[in-house]
Amino acid sequence: xxxxxxxxxxxxxxxxxxxxxxxxxxxxxxxxxxxxxxxxxxxxxxxxxxxxxxxxxxxxxxxxxxxxxxxxxxxxxxxxxxxxxxxxxxxxxxxxxxxxxxxxxxxxxxxxxxxxxxxxxxxxxxxxxxxxxxxxxxxxxxxxxxxxxxxxxxxxxxxxxxxxxxxxxxxxxxxxxxxxxxxxxxxxxxxxxxxxxxxxxxxxxxxxxxxxxxxxxxxxxxxxxxxxxxxxxxxxxxxxxxxxxxxxxxxxxxxxxxxxxxxxxxxxxxxxxxxxxxxxxxxxxxxxxxxxxxxxxxxxxxxxxxxxxxxxxxxxxxxxxxxxxxxxxxxxxxxxxxxxxxxxxxxxxxxxxxxxxxxxxxxxxxxxxxxxxxxxxxxxxxxxxxxxxxxxxxxxxxxxxxxxxxxxxxxxxxxxxxxxxxxxxxxxxxxxxxxxxxxxxxxxxxxxxxxxxxxxxxxxxxxxxxxxxxxxxxxxxxxxxxxxxxxxxxxxxxxxxxxxxxxxxxxxxxxxxx
Length: 514
Fold this sequence. Notes:
Layout: H1 6-19, H2 24-42, E1 48-53, H3 57-70, E2 76-81, H4 90-102, E3 108-110, E4 124-129, H5 141-152, E5 157-161, E6 184-188, H6 201-204, E7 206-210, H7 216-221, E8 226-228, H8 231-234, E9 252-256, H9 263-275, E10 280-285, H10 290-296, E11 301-304, E12 322-325, H11 333-345, E13 349-352, H12 354-361, E14 375-376, H13 380-387, H14 393-407, E15 410-413, E16 419-421, E17 427-429, H15 442-455, H16 460-482, H17 489-494, H18 496-513
Parallel strand pairs: 1-2, 1-4, 2-3, 4-5, 5-6, 6-7, 8-17, 9-10, 9-12, 10-11, 12-13, 13-14, 14-15
Antiparallel strand pairs: 15-16, 16-17
C-alpha cells in the first residue's frame, strides 16, 4: 500500500471525480458513509455526539456524518461550526444547507468566541472534523482554544476524521500548535506518513483506513518513496517449494552469535533461521556454548571457535548462502578483529545485528568495505550510535534514507512500525506486530528470519519485507495465545509455523482466484 503526500491525495480526489466520474459532493458522502459504518460497529447507540466542523471539506465530512448518525434517532447529534474568517467550501455549504432543511432537529451552533465553546460531559462522543490533512500552519487563536478545550474535556471518546486537527500529514518537526488528542482516527484510502511515528501516537490513537473508492489507476501510477506493508504486497514474493527439492535446495544459513552468558541469542537466531525455511543452518559459536546449542537446536550444525568464552578466530563461510552476525557476541578485542576479517572475506549476503552493529559504530571506516546490499537491523539506540542523533522521528527517517542510499545498505530500524530503507531511497513500514514483542530476544529472532530467507534465495529487499511482516504475524499469534505481557521471544518462534500457514493459505486462495 502506498503512502501518498497531501497534494497527491488531493490529486487522487480530483482524478477520481473526473474519471469515475463522480461529483465531489458524492465522494464526500461516500466518505461519511464509511465513517458511519465504522461508528455503527464500534460505538454504542443512543450516545450524545458533538461534531466540531471547520469550514473546509473536512467540516463537510462532519456535516454529512451528522445527517447519517442522526437518522432514526440512533445518536443524539449536535453540530458546532468553527468558521472564523475563512470562506467555507462549496461542499461544506451544500451539506450544511441539506442538514438544516431535512434534519431541523439537529442543533447547529456557531462558535464565534471562547464563550460559545460548549461544556463536554464525560458521556459525550466528540467527532473532530475541524481541519483535515490540508492544514499547513500551527493552530492559533479560537481554533487552538477549541482544541485545548476538547483535549481537557472528559469526553468518553474523541474521533478524528481524516487526521487529528492540528497535526500535519507528514513533517511535524516544526509544529508548535495545539493538536487534537484522538482516541481513534478514521482516515481515507491510504495511511498518512505522520501516523507511523511514535511521538504522534498521543494525537492519533488507533487509526483505521477506510476505503472510499479513490481511483486505483491514479494510485498505481503515483510516485512515492513511502509504502505500508500489507499481505497483498507480501503474497507475490513468497517462494513455492518444488516437490523434488531437498535440504540443499533451500539454502545454508550461517549464524555467528553468542558469548559466555549470552548463548540464548545464538539459540534464538539459529532456531528462527530454521523456522524461516532455511534447508541448513550452521552456527559459529564460542566453545562454551557447544552443549547449549546442540541440545537446544539439534537441527543446527555447530562450529565452535577456538576460544572458550567469545568468538575470536577466522570464520569460515564455506558453502553458505547467507550470514547473520552479532547477536550476543560481545565486544572483546578478539571479536572485533574476527568481525573485521569476516566482513573483508565474505562475498555473500550478510545481516548485521546487535553487538556487530555496536562494534561497527566504533569503527565507521568499515562502512567503506561492507558489501553493498548488506542488511543492518538496529534498534533506535543502535541506529543513533551508527549514524548520529536526530531531534524527532521524521528527521531520523530522513537520516535513515540518506545512510541507506549513501552506503548501499538495507537499514531495518526496529520499532512499532519497523521501517526499512532501501539503497534506492524507498521506505517500507511494517503493519504487523504488537507491544508484546518489546521483549529480550525479539530482535535476534528477526535477524534469524531474515538470514534464513536470504539463504533460500530471497533478494535482500524481499528478505527484509517478508521477514519483518512474518516476524510481526508470528508475534501477533504469540500475543493471542500468551498475551502481550506474558509472551517471550521463543513464543514468537513457536508462532512462525502458524504464520507461514496463514500466508501460504492466503497465497493459494489468491492464486486460485486468478
